[in-house]
Sequence to fold (151 residues):
Amino acid sequence: MKIRRAQKDDVPAIVEMLAHDKLGKLREDYRTPLPDTYLKAFDNISRDPNQELVVIENEQNQVIGTLQLSFIQYLTYQGGIRAQIEAVRIHEDYRGKRIGKKLFQWAIEKSKQKGAHVVQLTTDKKRPEALSFYQSLGFVDSHEGLKLHLL
Fold:
């Protein structure tokens, strides 16, 4: 298996994984052709040096997982950098095979290389299995997160 930066050709596979769960079905628009909004977002992410959108491929070079890693510069922690993990998905046929753990190990190592002092993530309370997975990797639910949806 290989982890690499996502390419534009990977966007349909990524969006399909994002749309293929109980929450993603409510907010994503996976169809052919893919709405242009996804490709515009990919272009913006690709140009931003503080973003790492990656995929993991199987031995047949098929995309089977993804995550986005964002580096956020702060004034707190003496001008520290936080790494934010978002949009983690593993294709349903490959869940339970330690692929998610491999992606997280990559993200944590990349965060250390970038000089981040913390790696953080959020997970929806409707995904208790995701919370258990993150805790098994050493993440601690130390803060309360709040959101205000604008659309």
The two ends are 38 Å apart (CA to CA).
